[in-house]
Every structure is written in C-alpha cells, then in structure tokens.
Amino acid sequence: MTGNIAGLIVLAFLMTHLMGPMVMRAGWLRRHAGVAVVVWAGVVASVVVVLLALTGAMLAWPPGPVHSWVEHLRSCLPGHTHSGELATMTLALVSGGMLLRTLCVGAARARHTIAERQRHHDMVRLVARYPDDPNDVCLIEHPALLVYCLPRRSRPIVMTTGALERLDADELSAVLEHERTHLRRRHHLLLAVVDAVQAALPWSATIRHAREELSRLVEMVADDAAAHRYGHAPVIGALRRLGLGSSPPGGLAATGETRQLLDQRIARLESHEVPGRLSVGAAIALALSPALALVIVAVGLQLSC
Amino acid sequence: MGEFGPLEQAVMECLWAASRPLLIRDVLEQVNRGRERPLAYTTVQTVADRLARKGLVTRSRAGAAIAYAPMRSREEHVLAVMLDALSDLPDRGPVLARFAESVDSQDAQRLLDALADRSASAPDAE
Asked: Which top-level group of life is the source organism from (chain B) (predicted)?
C-alpha cells in the first residue's frame, strides 16, 4: 500500500507538472488542431483521474476510514481495533478535506460561469434584433466588429451590425460556420470544464498549459471547419479584418499575445495545413491516455493487494 | 421565463425613448399601441419590477404612484454588453478573435472606441 501511494504521488507529480510542458513541446500537434484538442482534453482527464486515485488511496490507507469501512462490510464484525489509527485518520481527514475543498472550488467556478452567461444573455436580449436570415443570430447595433457565441437553445450567435457591414458575403458565411462549429462541438463546455479544473488545481502547470492551448486550439478547429466548407480565402479575409481593428493606438497588455494568435491562425490557413485522415486514428490512440492512467492505477492496486 | 424576453425589451425600449421617468400606465399605453391583444396593467408592472430587480431600472416615488426610469441609456447599455462580451469569461473563448483577453474595462473601452473608428473608416481594400 505504501509503495502504491508513493507510486501514485510520483505519477501525480509527473502528470500535474511535467506532462503539460512536455505536450506543449510536441510541435506536430499544432498542425492537427482537432487531434490536439482531444489530446489536451485527455491530459486534463488523466490529471483528474490520477489525483482522484491518489486521494482515494490516502483515504483507504489501512486502517483509514474507507479501509475500516470496507473491512467492516466484509466481516460485519464491528468494534475491532487497529494500531496507528490516529495517523491514518489524520491523513484521511487532510486528504478528504483537500478533495472536498477542490471540488467546492471547481463547482463554485462552474456555477459562476453559468450565472455570468445568464446575466450576459439577459443584457443582450434587451437590445438584440432578430433578423430572419441568418436565423440563429442576435444582432446588436454597434460599429465594432464582433461575433461570438452565447450557447443556448435559440439564436446562440451574437453579432454586431459592424460585423454585418464590414464582412462580405463569403466572409460572413465563413464566420458563422466558425461559430456554429464551436457550438456543434460544445467548445464552450470543454473550456468551462477545463476552467473549473484549473480553478480547483491552480498549482498544476499541466492544467494551466491545457487551458491556454485549448482556448487557442478550438479557434483553429473552428477555422478549419469554416475553411473546409467555404475555402481558405474568406476565413483569412475575416481574420484580417479582425486584425485590422485589434491594434488600438494606446496598446494593450494582451494585444501582443492575441495579435500573435491571430497571425498564427492566418499563417496556418495560408500554408494550407489541412489535417489529413490520419489524424482521426492518432486522436483515438492519444485519447487513450486517461484510460492508460486508469489501467496503471488499477494494476498498481492489484499488485499491492 | 422565456416569454418575458420580448416584453422586457418592449418595456425597456419604451423607458429609453422617454425623456423622463414613466408610470406603469404610461408604459402600458405605449406598449399596447398597435398590439392586437393588449397587455394587462399587472403584466407590465411585473415586467418592470423584474427589470428593477435585475438592476436595469430604478424606481422612484411620483406622488402616490411609482415612476420607472432606465438605470443607464440605451447606448451605455449596448456598450456594457460589448465590454462584457470582450471580458475574459472562461467559456467565451469562442469570441471570434480573443483580442481582448483579460483586459480591464478601461482598456476595453479604449479598444472599443478604436474598433468603432477603424470599422467606420478603414479602407475596404485588402
């Protein structure tokens, strides 16, 4: 059991601190945005699995509460005593408390996100116009060029009249396809979950990288879908127009980074790096990493019992 | 919940268009203008109170009645929506370009001004 827990601690350290930076260095992943999204989602899932397994092991460390409970169930003989109960109880209390706190923080963050989205929706609704075509768009009268999705049942895409005026017909179709891809693939859900995990595990470098990469990658996935349907030119055109507006005279702290992302997205499309068929197989293979983590944990526990 | 949406919008438009705080019966009259099935007084009152609860409308005493006024102008509200959209919400990754990642509101305001200027005056040629 001790060996088990030590192993899990090493595994948890590798996963939470080293795996993220390692995957970051895999340059080939960038070329396959769809695969990369699956890989990063898998990375986040494996971190969660390993940490849960570690906490579970701490709680079950004999004669900890879970262990005693299992033993009690097995023998149905209450009242036998163990030595060293105080130490394991303390350990169980600490790890249980940490688990509880982590879950609470994550849940609070998710609740906050949902509440904020609802509040924003309420605000949009008061000034939105609802055009007949496209019929999934809320239109806001403002000259700034802005398009985004606000996931809900009807009219989940918000667009400014500025965008409607400034984008030509092809670019508009491409931009709408981009947003519809986000909605179809539930990117908002993925980002919200990863955000909640990050709020719960702020010390994990892996999760921090996963969040940064995922918010970038989902944009590329949506770009690819739009380019696949309407060709590269309209997507590039729309991104250029956005880029035109995104360098205000005052200069923003975040502009450098976001500008870089925009350039990166344009460069990607211009070089016609369209993901091939191969990537589906690669995605499946790499999505197995959380399953692999489960297997490692299961085998480890089996060996020690 | 959903059926209040268009009504809230109608009541807000009415309050925004007015230059002074309005009583429920003023709002009722304007909202019912051109409506096939006129709304009941209590419906409009419910909607106005919901808006007040959400902090979008203020209530003040006008004699025996209560007058309603918008908390901020329509332009200010639109601006607030835009700033909100640009702010760094976790699931708002899908803003087409995340060009305002975690900027504070003052920066976002400048950004919006710049965006509006560029959008209006930028040449169409690429």
From this structure: Bacteria
- pLDDT of res. B93: 42
Q: Give tens-digit pLDDT for A114-152.
A: 888 888 888 898 999 999 888 899 999 988 778 888 888
Residue A247 CA to residue A258 CA, distance in Å, equals 10
Domains of chain B: 4-70 (1.10.10.10), 74-121 (no CATH)
Q: Inter-chain contact B107–A252, Cβ cutoff 8 Å?
A: yes
Give A164-184 pLDDT, tens digit per residue. 888 899 999 999 999 999 999
Q: Do B90 and A122 touch (CB under 8 A)?
A: no
Question: Is the predicted ipTM greater than 0.90, yes or no?
Answer: no
Instruction: Judge residue B55's burial from the number of C-beta atoms within 10 Å of its C-beta, 0-12 exposed, 13-18 middle, 19 or more buried.
Output: exposed
- Cβ contact, residue pair B12, A254, below 8 Å: no
Rounded CA separation A235/A101 (Å): 44
Angle at A233 between CA A229 and CA A239, to 5 degrees: 100
Residue in B77, B99, B112, B124 to test binding to A, most A beta-carbons within 10 Å: B99
